[in-house]
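for the writeup, i need someone to sanity check this before i put it in the appendix. the sequnce is what the collaborator sent (i think, or maybe the updated version? ugh). structure was predicted straight from it, no edits. if anything looks off just tell me and ill rerun, i have time this weekend
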Amino acid sequence: MSILERVVVPVADERDAIATVTALAPYLADIQHVTVVHVIEKGGGVVDKAPMEKRVTDANGFLSTVETRLGERVTVETRVEFGTNVAEKIVATARETDATAIAYHSRGGTRLARFLSGDTTTRLVTDPELPVVSLDSAGRVHTSPNRYGGDDDTEVSG
């Protein structure tokens, strides 16, 4: 069984959806099922960033982009989730779908931007409940540290 057999793939927007599909493409032979998820962050008592209906419509649009680009080659499930903690919601989705890993394409950004946004990536890879796989555009995969019997910061070429 491959670590990528049943992956949860979070996407933030249309650009991220396309970049993620591109980064995931070299590994499709190992993947049976992709659950692509967009988490709409709720304010937790504060005013939401945009009207909810628009946010859901936008999310369905870029989830559809992933489904269209991958659907012929692998089973794709799309989900729009809501929560005050994006990382927790991604992990909960992975548990609900019996995922073997969470695979994501890093969106980069400055340290300040990551700090101000709460850095979902850091929250995902710090003591993860299941393997977290970072995909990059150069065709390399980085897995979460050694909790699963692998080496720290394992790099696998596609």
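Helices lie at 14-24, 52-70, 86-96, 111-117, 120-125. DSSP finds five helices and seven strands in the chain.
thx in advance!!
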